[in-house]
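Tip: read the tokens left to right.
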């Protein structure tokens, strides 16, 4: 079985979070794309929530036969499968539209807590947002 994972924040290329977690060598880059969601700046990291009126840019990765990668990502994102209602993020399958127009399905982590003073990132692109900050 092959799992695909869409990341839109500090797990993207340019950050060392995947490497520090020891999972970067078990994830193969597929391409850049977007999901239908809204993105918010929470200070140290972004949060995406499902939204029909927004696009969140990110990267699609493939993981082949290594369930420990999803387990490690669940840990990083504060997702507890046995306690989804109190998890910081929820892991869900969603459609990812790649730059070439093809659509794939992947796991994504949607924020599952109050947004507080988080401001919406209108561009939906965390890297561009950081460059403009």
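Filled-in amino acids:
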């Amino acid at each position: 079985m092959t799992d695909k994972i869409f990341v839109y924040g500090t797990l993207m290329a340019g950050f060392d979070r995947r490497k520090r977690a020891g999972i970067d060598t078990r994830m193969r880059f597929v391409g850049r794309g977007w999901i239908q969601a809204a993105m918010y700046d929470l200070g140290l990291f972004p949060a995406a929530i499902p939204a029909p009126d927004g696009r969140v840019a990110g990267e699609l990765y493939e993981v082949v036969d290594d369930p420990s990668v999803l387990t490690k990502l669940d840990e990083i994102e504060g997702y507890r499968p046995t306690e989804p209602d109190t998890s910081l993020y929820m892991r869900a399958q969603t459609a990812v539209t790649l730059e070439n127009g093809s659509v794939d399905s992947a796991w994504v982590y949607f924020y599952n807590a109050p947004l507080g003073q988080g401001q919406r990132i209108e561009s939906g692109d965390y890297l561009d947002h950081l460059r403009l900050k």
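The CA atoms of residues 13 and 59 lie 8 Å apart. The longest strand covers residues 46-64.
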